[in-house]
Amino acid sequence: MRKLSLALAPLLTAGALALAFVPGSVGATNLAAPIKLTPVATGLDSPVAFAWRGSQASPMFVAQQSGTLVTVANGHVTGTVLRLTVSHDNEQGLLGVAFSKNGTKLYVDYTDPKGDIRIVEYTMNGNSVKAGTRRQLMLIPHHSASNHNGGNLVIGPDNMLYISVGDGGGGGDTFHNGQNKSSLLAKILRIDPRKTGSKPYGIPDGNPWKGKAGTRPETWMWGLRNPWRFSIDRATHDMWIGDVGQNAWEEIDYAKSGQRGINWGWPLREGKHAYDGAKPAGARDPIFERSHDGGDCAIIGGYVYRGKAIPGFQGAYLFGDECTGDLRALTQSGGRLVSSRDLQLNVSQLTSFGEGPGGEVYAASRGGTLYLLAPK
């Protein structure tokens, strides 16, 4: 993410827009869907990530950037699950959280006081962390610059842990990690979080560079600048990545289920445009891009809507931008953009989206308010 320190604006400007979507991934017919944003909790400290344990709708677990993981129910914080000592620059802190499918393991992604990225596992005892169960999976050096940490964690349908990591910071890929296969930076990683022999995690079969010399076998995709938020469609298992741009373009990347080893082109490409050289052979352009001309500066990737409350949005990918706070939706068919719409909804200082157990979608404001996208 580029910025997390924008001046406060009104927390919510909610409107509704009847949209006709054609979600090619599910073959739905055109439906109108007037929507609104409903505040569901207030008073949080820079919330940046959501998680739920299994199928239980409550409590919601929310990562606060300052280093605490809290539970939220009935509109407010109900408890503190974990406290971590983190670094505190705008793009640092506690950045990601996920649970194993059975809810027994908690995974967190944070930057330590030196600025390095740590992926850590804990064992749960109900909704609490069991004492003495901290187990570090990964330490990714990142202390040369404070920005572009990525930070999202996703447990995939294959029970593997997917991790987004930025390019190491600075500007214009200062540390030359975007096209470096031997670095863990500028990637989406995929690991088996279970201990494997003497190693804290395993390399799953299917990883494109497993067993190949001069590469990092954890890599799933590469050539990314700062994939702050990504998700896997619960219905199709397609992957969607919101990759924050440099000077001119924000992008959404789309990969059909099972596609791997994709080079998204950074730093040679920014969006669909040349940035620092010719397009690499085989590199893929994003499915969607937005210019900074309208005020966008840091895209916030979201989710394909799979809930029941807003049937017209079935199959639509929801996302936004931190600087404008505007929420948008797009649809695809066969990996090609079908339509995109401004939803006429705004979350000031938008930081993240969350997907509840039933597929409903939430949004978070750095100002401390959580919202639910709901029918109007």
Overview of the molecule:
The protein is mainly β and 376 residues long. The protein has strands at residues 12-14, 35-41, 47-51, 60-64, 68-73, 76-83, 94-99, 105-111, 117-125, 128-129, 135-140, 153-155, 161-165, 187-191, 219-222, 229-232, 239-243, 249-255, 269-270, 273-274, 288-291, 299-304, 317-321, 326-333, 336-347, 350-355, 361-365, 370-375. The strands form seven sheets. Strands 1-25-24-23-22 form a five-stranded antiparallel sheet, with no helix packed on it. A hairpin with a 5-residue loop joins strand 12 (153-155) and strand 13. The protein is globular. The protein starts with 11 loop residues before the first strand and ends with a strand. Mean pLDDT is 91; it is low at 3-31.
Report strand order across the widest sheet: 1-25-24-23-22
Q: Please, how many helices?
A: 0
The gyration radius over C-alpha positions equals: 19 Å
For the largest beta-sheet, the strand count, sense and barrel status come to: 5 strands, antiparallel
pLDDT averaged residue by residue: 91
List the secondary-structure elements in sequence, H or E. Answer: EEEEEEEEEEEEEEEEEEEEEEEEEEEE
Shape: globular
User: Distance between termini?
Assistant: 31 Å
pLDDT under 50 segments (min length 5)?
3-31
The H-level CATH homologous superfamily, spelled out, is TolB, C-terminal domain
Number of strands: 28
**What is the CATH topology?**
Neuraminidase
Text of the CATH class: Mainly Beta
Strand content: 35-45%
The total tally of domains equals: 1
Q: Per CATH, which architecture?
A: 6 Propeller
- Estimate the helix proportion, in percent: under 10%
